[in-house]
Amino acid sequence: MDNFFSYISKPVEHEEVKLWSETNNICYLKLELFHDFTIGLVNLIYKTYLGNNDGIKINIENRDNENHFDWCWNKTLENFRKENIKIEPTGEHYNFFKSFILETFYQQENTEVKMSLDRFFNDIFDFDITFTMSDLDLLTTIYKSLDKNLINNLQN
Q1: What is the C-alpha R_g of the chain?
Q2: Any bridge partners for residue 56, and if so which?
Q3: Domains of the chain: which residue ranges?
Q4: Average pLDDT by consecutive 10-residue portion of the chain (156 residues)?
């Protein structure tokens, strides 16, 4: 239990974060790109979701939520393609974001938690704040899955 508590709460020293980014071949420009992609997706979901708006409870089925996520995902990919940044439409990155957002947004009853996704992802991508090992693992998962599915050959 102590190890788990340490994993999710103990701050990682700045030097360890630097070593982590070098070990995982984290490119700052790609990190910025993936941050923009993630926030763009989350903001589009916020702006276009019809459920639970202003205290009005609309009965939306799970399939409707999945369709909404897929529409937002494809629209975000399209927006990036317009900038000549191509990302594969399906793969582990898609599966990760879909399952994460279905659980933490669409299926979330607490509005405060639901509407904190943008702040959560901004914090995960912010190298100026203190990280935990849990944060670094999540950032690694996001970075590597998007990097693996980035079609463009961006320079490091």
Answers
A1: 17
A2: 53
A3: 32-148
A4: 66 84 92 97 94 62 93 98 95 97 92 92 89 90 96 60
Distance CA 90, CA 97 (A): 11
pTM of the model: 0.85
Element (H, E) at 6: helix 2-9
* Whole-angstrom distance, CA of residue 138 vs CA of residue 115: 19
C-alpha to C-alpha distance for 84 and 107, rounded to whole angstroms: 33
Amino acid identity, residue 84? Answer: N
Q: What is the pLDDT of residue 6?
A: 65
Q: What are phi and psi of 12, to 5 degrees?
A: -95, 135
Integer angstrom CA distances of residue 64 from 46, 52, 87: 15, 13, 24
DSSP string, 44-60: HHHHH--SSBTTB----
Report the distance separating Cα 135 and Cα 12, nearest Å: 10
List Cα–Cα distances, 69 to 34, 52, 73, 122, in angstroms.
18, 16, 6, 20
Pinpoint the alpha helices (H) of 13-54. 14-23, 28-48
